[in-house]
Amino acid sequence: MTSELFSVLDVLPYGVVITTRQGEENYRNQFAADLFSHIDVSLVTDEMRRLASVSYPESELVLPGPPERTIAIRLYSLGDCNALFLFEDVSEARRLDRVRSDFIANLSHELRTPVGAITILAEAINETNDSESHTRLGRRILKEALRLGDSIEGLLHLSWLESGQAQRFADVDVHKLFSLAVDSTVEIAKKHRVQIAIACPAGIKIEGDEKQLVSALINLIDNAVKYSDPGSQVAVKASELAADLVEMTVSDTGVGIPEEDIDRVFERFYRVDAARSRKTGGTGLGLSIVRHVVSNHKGMISVTSEPGVETTFKIVLPRTV
Asked: Which are the contacts of 254, defined by CB distance < 8 A and separation ≥ 6?
């Protein structure tokens, strides 16, 4: 019976360690053994001893990385002689908590800023009778109102994508997708004096929702253009990886993304350089929209960047055979 019990404990998605009241270890299951093999065990044993001496035997231990991990530890008494420690890896849950917290903070900022500006500008209009000032302030109110509208429209679009509803999948020509996306970004490219170059063999097709895919490409190209230097080029390419996969890339030679920000660029409202992003007029939702489009199409997206040299966003999707 004991061996059967230990077999059950070994398949649990939690770490189980049984010790004496003096801290001498009697048993650890497979999850705990795997966990301890990748961390500094002294940190854990010190926390176990601390928990054994306090009235509230529960804590979270943050273990340095990379990647950083957060382990929840709970102590349960097994009579007068033994104690059971339960370990749970809550790293992903804590990461999502931080993402949610950052999202709420950023959303509040993104909406409050244009609303505050509109309020101040409207008050300024009321305090002056000068027609020239009215015109100038009116233009600024319009600019802030459009900015607010873009943020709201982006949130609604993102919510629609997350719902996964009303998708219309069909065979889509990749070159057509590129053409539609470039047509929608050509004016912003002219404004920034950036060229957009397409390289796509004829006849490549994927199964997907054309509207969503064009939206994703527009966001990638728009992002690349805004962060490129005048006179540079954004390259939009497609190729067949295998009989059943298509790779699409958008590359630029702009400012790039620092390594520490790579993992967060697809979060809603996350900005690598907040000051530059507001100057270029981005909502901070574009890359999150791209991620959800790719997810809806059962694809993969990744980004590589060498700041000041090149940044490439890569999408891999199933091909229509």
From this structure: 224, 227, 228, 229, 232, 311
Neighbours of 310 (CB within 10 A): 14
Inter-residue long-range contacts of 160-165, CB under 8 Å, 24+ positions, other chains counted: 161/212, 161/289, 161/292, 161/293, 161/296, 162/292, 164/296
CATH architecture of 92-166: Orthogonal Bundle (1.10)
Give the pLDDT confidence of 176-203 residue by residue, as tens digits.
999 999 998 999 999 999 999 999 988 8
pTM confidence score:
0.56
Q: Do the beta carbons of residue 208 and residue 163 sit within 8 Å?
A: no
Give yes or no for a contact between 310 and 299, defined as CB atoms under 8 angstroms apart. no
CA 105-110-111 angle, to 5 degrees, is 105
Topology given in CATH for the domain delimited by 2-89: Beta-Lactamase (3.30.450)
φ and ψ at residue 79, rounded to 5 degrees: 80, -160
